[in-house]
Structure formats: structure tokens, C-alpha cells
């Protein structure tokens, strides 16, 4: 009997201790008394045909409509291989606080690899790269509070050229210190990124197509470079309560609905040099800035944004710069004057006339 006791268990289900030997007879035990699933002896697991036992367990659970319980399992590659290529086998399983000891490499060659079940990596630890390339995810895909550990170099979380037919969630990446790349993917349902705290390296969510809502909230990115370029947003997209503390790229975006940047008093979105190169034809919807620091956007890009402010009216305006935005490099302190009702139109007109005169004669853009 395996001696492993779960860190995460349900009192109602009474699943405190490893119970896999009740489903699979005569599971091999290592020298420490742990079964082939919970043993941390990588070489021993490979020699004992870990993959065969895993396939057998998953098959029995599916045949008997039982929960596939893979909590705290240590996953290894097949003997003779250097990477884990069987993630499709884990669809619909409980994968919580599990450890992956080799590179995950799921790469479709002539056609996409189909994963026909929910994949939910919750509090998992990865010791090598995680790569999904040319895959088709038919159900939810979730990354929650995952961790990358490697003493010898920077690891990569890389998802490319894949299709997500259902919900995509990436949440609670705290002190995340690996490269993250999500590129060339199609998201057919909502895509949500929440509580992402990146310490360094590269952060790229680029050249994707989002058919439903996109949400990026409550996050701080301190990466070497941040790139959201070439994304296509078919439905509403939002960046809310976030701070981008590195060079950021938002070039060549296509917006077919609303793209909304909403800062807070603590986080005004942009805190380093930002490139926001867009063209009018690509903005079929509307870009809205609220409580956002725009003064760090490249001067030429900011001028285009200001020009697009003048295109359209009301809901048809290409760009709306709302309340609380900072779009000038030097600002005078706020002063409050009490005026008679109806005079604010006159004062506004005088202010705008002076700003136009100042800009024309001095060459500096003065905003009111």
C-alpha cells in the first residue's frame, strides 16, 4: 500500500491517502513505500513503465465513470524519451499540485493534436519547458497558480498555432519568472488573464485572434519586453487595473468591437516606453482609454491616437480618451474655480482658443 498522504483532500470524499491501489492491483512501490504514481524516483518510474500504468488507470476510470484522480502525481517521460508527449491522456483528470519532470512537448506535425477534455493545471510545478504547438483544445484550458523551477536557465511557457474551442483561463501566476509566449492561436470562447505578476524575461501575447471577450485584469508585468501586437479582437476586450512596467508593444491591432483600457488610482496601465502604432482602417470598433497614462506612448503614435479621437461621433468614434487620462508630458497642478451656470462654455472656448494660438506660435502641443 502506498504511504502517500495528500496535501489537498476533501473531508466529504475522505480522500486523504493514496487509493490508486484499490483500482490497480499490485502497483509497484519504490524504496520509500510510494507507488509508481507518487514516487519521485524518475529513473525507477521509467524502468517500471510509468506510462503503461497511467494508461491503464485512465482507461479503467473512464470505463467505470470514475473520477481520474492524478493529484500530486510526479509525471515523467517514457523510457528513452526526453519529453512528455502524452498530455492528451490527462484530459478531464484532476491535476493538482502535480510535478512534471521533463519538457512537455505537444506538437502536431501533419495535423493538430486533439485534446478532447478539460485540461486544468492547478498549482502544478514544471521543471522544464512547456510547449503546445498546433493543438486543438475541445474543452476548457486552465492554468492556475502554476510554478516553473529550474536552477540552470530560463524556462518557457509557449502556446502557438493552436485552437481553443472553449474557455481559456490563465490566473494567479505570482512571481512568474519564465518566458511566456502565446502566439498564432484562435480563441473561440472567452479568454481570461487575471492576477498575473511577471518578474522578468519576455511576455508575449501576440498575433492571436479572439472571437469572444478578452480580459486582462489585476496584473503587474515587470518583464524585459511586453508584446500584444497583431492581435485581432472581434468582441469586447479589456485591460483593467494593470501595470505594464517595461517597454510595451501594442502595434497593428485590429479592433472590431470595443478595446477598453481602464486604470485605477494605483495603476494607470503604462509605466514605460509604449508603442501603439495603429491605422484607422483596422479600428472598425472603438478604443477607449480611462484613467490611463498616455504620455509614455511614442509621440508619433500618440498623435495618431489624438487624430483618431476626431474621427466619428459618439459610439462611432474611433478613439475615446476619457476621464483621468494623462496625455501630456508636463501638466500644471489642478485648480478649482467656481463659476456661474452657463459660463463654462465660454471659458472652455477661451481655453481652447489660447491652446491653438500657443501651439501655432511655439510649436509645442498645449492641451486643455
Describe this structure in a few short sentences.
The chain is α/β, with parallel strands linked by helices.
Question: What share of residues is helical?
Answer: 10-25%
Shape summary: elongated
Query: Runs with pLDDT <50, length 5+?
Result: none
The termini sit apart by: 76 Å
Q: Largest beta sheet, briefly?
A: 11 strands, parallel
Approximate strand percentage:
25-35%
User: Mean pLDDT, nearest integer?
Assistant: 91
The gyration radius over C-alpha positions equals 26 Å
Q: Kindly state the number of beta strands.
A: 31
Number of helices: 4
> Which structural category do the helix and sheet elements fall into?
alpha/beta
Features:
single chain, 368 residues, alpha/beta, 11-stranded parallel β-sheet, 9-stranded parallel β-sheet, 31 strands, elongated
Question: Could you please describe the fold and organization of this structure?
Answer:
The chain is of the alpha/beta class and 368 residues long. The chain is built from 4 helices and 31 strands. The protein has helices spanning 42-47, 50-63, 299-309, 344-362; strands at 74-75, 83-84, 95-96, 99-100, 103-107, 113-115, 119-122, 125-126, 130-133, 135-137, 141-144, 147-148, 156-160, 163-164, 168-176, 179-183, 186-187, 191-198, 202-206, 209-210, 214-221, 225-227, 232-233, 237-244, 247-249, 254-255, 258-262, 269-270, 274-275, 286-290, 319-321. Strands 3, 7, 11, 15, 18, 21, 24, 27, 28, 30 and 31 form an 11-stranded parallel β-sheet that branches. A 9-stranded parallel β-sheet has the order 2-5-9-13-16-19-22-25-29, with no helix packed on it. The model has no long low-confidence stretch (mean pLDDT 91).
